[in-house]
Amino acid sequence: MVRFVCVLLILVAGRVGAQTAPSDVERQILAARDTVWRAWFANDTAVLKRVLPAAVATHEGSTGQWSDRTKTLADARAFAGSGGRLEHLAFANTHVSVNGDAALVTSIYTLVMHGNGRPDTSRGRAVELFVRQNGGWVNPFWQLSSAPGFDREVQLPDTLGANFSAADSLTATGSPSDYDALIGVWQFHFQSRSSKTSFGPGFDGHWTFEKKPGGMIIEDHWRPDDPKSPYGASTYTYRSFDPVKKIWRIVGMESQRGGFQPGLTWSDANNRYAIQHDGNTMVRIRYFAIEPDHFLWRADGTPDGGKTWIRDIWTMEARRIGK
């Protein structure tokens, strides 16, 4: 451990006066970084054993706990076993300092992971050490720490959240034309809360609404933009209109996680409302400011059946790109 710290101090001290790394070397190092991160989230043990030397040491979060390679591989297995998956990975403010066969990489990372039925975003600072070995770069050390939260990226008229009573679903009604204004293809910007008081980083994606022949069923297909993910790896939502009760029944499903999020959706003159359940969590959703080529969307969440609500746990702005 002392040796790792000494190497890091030497590299940090040399950053101001060090020359910029040759572009081909820097690309090799950043490619190695991407391989390590993606292999961990994919639980690719063969790759991880190749890029993580036996003496690897990692430090994450504020617990003060260090991990070795055995623990790092076990954590990757546990993440995969939980059904979680990586949807988006990005780095900003990346700096690379090369000193002989060692390189220090510092950056701000942004992760979008999917688990428990919803996307979860996290952001932090990464300090990573790479060492040239057998013609490639291995990653014997990294330290990850939290970074401050983001501001709101989806501009809304207030901070009141979706702000309606879940009990409205007992008496509210809709019509088969409720979602006609949304039929087509939309590009969205989505942001979720990282805590009650701060937001995570937003991301972009595409959302399609298709009304089936007969007019009583609507399928929508929602996915973050990710060139490494199959187009069909998405969240699908089905709405079926009940002509007797005059309300839409709704169910959400995810192609990679499965799951089943049932609920109801209805309308008034200016808004579309929905209530959905995912295990012990209930979400209330409002579509509003609906125009031919633009609308806003927000959701509140409650873990206790509606006694307390976290406002604007998810927010979204959508713009039409096709009919």
Q: How would you describe this structure to a colleague?
A:
The termini are far apart. The strands form two sheets. The chain has a ten-stranded antiparallel barrel. Strands 2-1-6-5-4-3 form a six-stranded mixed sheet. It has two domains: 145 residues, Nuclear Transport Factor 2, Chain: A (Roll), CATH 3.10.450.50; 157 residues, Calycin beta-barrel core domain (Lipocalin), CATH 2.40.128. Helix content is 16%, strand content 48%. Strand 14 and strand 15 form a beta hairpin. The radius of gyration is 23 Å and the shape is elongated. The protein is of the alpha+beta class. Helix 2 packs antiparallel against helix 3.
Briefly, what CATH class of the largest domain? Mainly Beta
For the biggest sheet, the summary is: 10 strands, antiparallel, barrel
* The CATH homologous superfamily of the largest domain: Calycin beta-barrel core domain
The stretches of 5 or more residues where confidence is low (pLDDT under 50) are: 1-22
End-to-end separation in angstroms reads 59 Å
Into how many domains do the coordinates divide?
2
Number of helices: 4
Query: What is the molecular shape?
Result: elongated
Mean pLDDT across the residues is 87
Q: Which sequence of SSEs, written as H and E, runs from N to C?
A: HHHEEHEEEEEEEEEEEEEE
Radius of gyration, in Å, reads 23 Å
Report the sheet-strand fraction.
over 45%
Looking at the structure, the CATH topology of the largest domain is Lipocalin
Helix content: 10-25%
User: Structural class from helices and strands?
Assistant: alpha+beta
CATH architecture descriptor of the largest domain: Beta Barrel
Q: Reading side by side through the largest sheet, how are the strands ordered?
A: 7-8-9-10-11-12-13-14-15-16
The counted number of beta strands is 16
